[in-house]
Design brief:
The chain is mainly α and about 190 residues long. The chain is built from six helices and no strands.
């Protein structure tokens, strides 16, 4: 028997799969940005390193709890607490990643209306990139070009979606725990 049957069990499995897919997408994008920074001899942004750390831990947690669920060995109450802790961590990621992004319009990056600010950004990035081991500020990195802007907005959107998914999986875990604690009816043998 692979986990509790019914809609609640199926919902828990689907949510875990969606969480894992979103986390792997964030890991790929954040790791790509970090590799770009490192290849330019710059220290990676603390925001991206933090995002990568939280998502790596979360994807490992999702894999372990999914396997335990399938083997009927998942401690639902502990899972609820861990889902809540990861929810808090992902809220922090969403806020830190999204704070400067919320003011940024990716469509206008590179257009003539923002040519002066783009020029100043280019000078600042050039100055940062010319100093080996220097750290490129996150707020400058996200505005470097349209692709970077859109990819960071994707990370932000996925982290917000993960907040919803982890809240939902915590609720599912509580419901599964309550169902597992329900007293089984006694069989009466005649």
């Amino acid at each position: 028997m692979a986990g509790p049957n019914g809609a609640l069990g199926a919902t828990f499995k689907i949510v875990r799969i969606l969480q894992t897919i979103s986390l792997i997408a964030i890991i790929g994008m954040a790791a790509y940005f970090i590799s770009q920074m490192v290849s330019n001899n710059n220290a990676p942004s603390d925001v991206l390193v933090g995002t990568l750390s939280v998502t790596c831990i979360a994807v490992l947690y999702c894999a372990i709890t999914y396997i335990l669920y399938l083997d009927n060995g998942l401690p639902y109450l502990i899972t609820t607490g861990m889902d809540g802790a990861l929810l808090i961590a992902l809220i922090v990621v969403a806020v830190v990643v999204g704070k400067p992004l919320s003011y940024l319009n990716c469509k206008v990056i590179g257009s003539s209306s923002v040519s002066q600010s783009t020029y100043q950004l280019g000078l600042e990035l050039k100055k940062s990139l010319s100093q080996e081991g220097s750290k490129v500020p996150y707020s400058n990195w996200i505005g470097a070009n349209k692709v970077t802007c859109y990819e960071m907005k994707a990370i932000w959107g996925l982290s917000i979606a993960l907040c919803i998914l982890f809240a939902f999986s915590a609720i599912c875990s509580v419901c599964l725990w309550r169902r597992s604690k329900a007293v089984a009816p006694k069989s009466v043998e005649g």
